[in-house]
Each structure stands twice: as C-alpha cells, then as structure tokens.
Amino acid sequence: MSSRRTENRHAAATGLDTRPPEEVLDVLAEGQAKAALSVRSAVADLARAATLAAETIEAGGRLVYAAAGSSGLMALADALELPGTYGIRREQIVVLLAGGADALVNMTGGPEDDGDAARQAIETLQLDSRDCVIGVTASGQTPYPVEALRTAKERGAKTIGFANNVGTRILEIADVGICLPTPPEVIAGSTRMGAGTAQKIALNMLSTMMAIHLGHVHDGYMVNVVADNIKLRERAKGIVAAISGASAERAAAVLETSEGAVKPAVLLAAGAADLRTAEAMLAEHKGHLRPALAALQG
Asked: For this structure, is 154 an active site residue?
C-alpha cells in the first residue's frame, strides 16, 4: 500500500477474516505486544524529551499537546491526568485537538488536515521560550500537529515530536524527535491499534520521567498527588506512613495539618517542628522530598 510502515500490510493478515476468532485475536494480541516493545528503541530520546518537559514546568511554562484522531486521544489521556497524579498546575497543561472538543464525540478525518487551525491555536497561546509543544502523529506527516510544531518553533518554544514512521516531517522539525517504529498494523493503517498503544506507553513514560525530575516521585510513590477522593486520601495516608515510618493515625493527623499535601506531611511525620518549617525545607530543596528528609534527619 505504501512506503510508510504504518500503512503496510501485516504478514499475518492474509485470510484474517476467514479464521476462527481465537486465532484472529491471538494475532491482534501479538501485534499489540510487538508495538509495545518498539518503545524501548526510543528510550534515549524520551529521556531528552522528559528533561525539556521538566524544565518547562519548573520555569512556569506550559506543556502543550497537539494531535489529531487516535493520537489526540492518546495525548489527551496523558495530559488530563498530570494535575491529579503529580500536582501539575492545570493552567500549565494545554491540549490542542484537531476539530476541538467536538472531536471527542464525533471524530472525523477532515480536521487533521487543517494546518491553519493549528497555527491559529498556537498563535492564540502566545508561546515563548518557557513553553514546550508535544506533537503526536502516527504517520509523522499529519498537517495539524506538524504545523503546530512548526509555529511553536517560530515562536521560540521547545518542541517534541512523536511519529511511528522514520524520516518524517514532524521528526525533522522537533527539537527532540521520538520515533516509535511499530510493525505494520494487523488491520493495515489502523493506527489506533499498535501505533496508538506505543504512543500511549511513550507519552506516559515521558510524563512520568518529567515528574521524577520535578521531585514528584519518591521510591515509586506519587508524593505530589492531589488527594481529592476517598481512594486517593487513603493512598496519601499510606504514602506518608510508608515513607516516614509513622502510624496510620499519625499520617492522617499530619495530612490534616498539611491540608492533604503529602510532601510536607511526610516531613511533619518525620519530625519537622511545624508546617511552616516543613514547607521552608521543601522550598530550599526545590520541592524534592529526599534531600529535605536527609536534611531533617541529618
């Protein structure tokens, strides 16, 4: 069909529609597994991208995701959870979807070709060097994210580009280009499958590494979580108890004092004199809990 790998025909697709369901599903599962493995080849570039993203958030800039279709859904899934999981300010996370909010209930193909809409959306944001735009496209050529990155770069913003085909336009434009070389789709060109899976994994890896750089992860715990429901309040209590060694009752009490903020609560449980002292220690260490704890205990 095409020289693009995402459009090529899968080797196991012959007669696919004539086989037993279990056999077809086994082929589909294998396709997903191989797509997931492709992310490993991009680890070095993902590390560079995570550093750019962390610098953006630390400088008070905005992380802007720009994508269309299935790639837009992957970007949206990653972006929307960052404020709750890692306490990133909501105004620092922006999602630009081709077709706008309507695309979430009626996803059509046309808007992805509207590069002018992407340019206008980026210009409206009035980006500068503190900001970073992440463009996501399986083909690597989709006009909406490509034009978003091009315009962002003209405005001096940092740029990260994702694609599932090598040597494509978005990878050439981006400051950090991340190629996820997924195999041909079992259903040729249906990039909501393997390519989408790899994009979801890679975006989650990037944003998680960003959060680690920012000091929002400690020994695998999300120590900047926004505990705004029963489950998360229990999780926050468990995190404070696990890191500080305090009882569950003590963890609950210090979380009450810190108004649910986990990092100062850990310091209070570990012996900080009061909330002001705990917050000052965190500020001294740029929000990183480990060195603040070391200072308190040493």
From this structure: no
